[in-house]
Amino acid sequence: MAMKRLLNSSSLLIGLILVFIGILDNRETINNGIEKALSRVFFKDNYADLWQVKPGSIYDGDTLRVVRGNEELKIRICGIDAPELKQPLGIESRDYLRSLIAQGNGTIHVLPIETDRYDRTVAELWIPIKPDYEAQIHLNTAMVEAGYAYHYQQYSDSCVSAENLGWAEKIARDEKLGVWNGNHQKPWKWRSAKKYTN
């Protein structure tokens, strides 16, 4: 009986170690992918432009406005879909995005990808982190990895970080973070249901 317990405990421990190693490997893959994306973005002809997030413009977890001089853009974060404000975790998602942006004091690198049907600039976004601004937070993957947004696969093909979004979502799902902790309705399904009930 003691030997059986020992074997079961050993099997459980080995399983947990393998899961942990798998999660670390996924994080390493994401980090390597983000570094490659950064090099494509900042060291090629199509580098990301420096903007400021417009105060009070972070509407939800995937939309915001940026300004530079007299220019203003409404941004939709490429390849993600965050819960709507009226959904569970909608406010938390918006507040998490605000907290990430606050780490760069409102400064943001914007790589425009395309314009969507609502005339928003779909973009990859990076926050340079204080105090030296040399480190970066890639907002697209950070929101998904924390469980505050889904990888919006049907709209991520043109994103520089499309593959990384898949890995980030796997981490959030495996760790049951945010939208993966419970039975949450995906925002695109929620919007579709709202359209037909109104």
TrEMBL record:
SMART domains assigned: SNc (SM00318)
PANTHER family linked to this entry: EBNA2 BINDING PROTEIN P100 (PTHR12302), SERINE_THREONINE-PROTEIN KINASE 31 (PTHR12302:SF3)
Protein's UniProt keywords contain Hydrolase: yes
Pfam family, one: SNase
Signal peptide boundaries: none
Domain (TNase-like) ranges: 58-182
GO MF, one example: hydrolase activity
Keyword Nuclease in record: yes
Keyword line: Endonuclease, Hydrolase, Nuclease
Domain of life: Bacteria
InterPro entries, sorted: SNase_OB-fold_sf (IPR035437), Staphylococal_nuclease_OB-fold (IPR016071), Thermonucl_AS (IPR002071)
Name by which UniProt lists this protein: Thermonuclease family protein
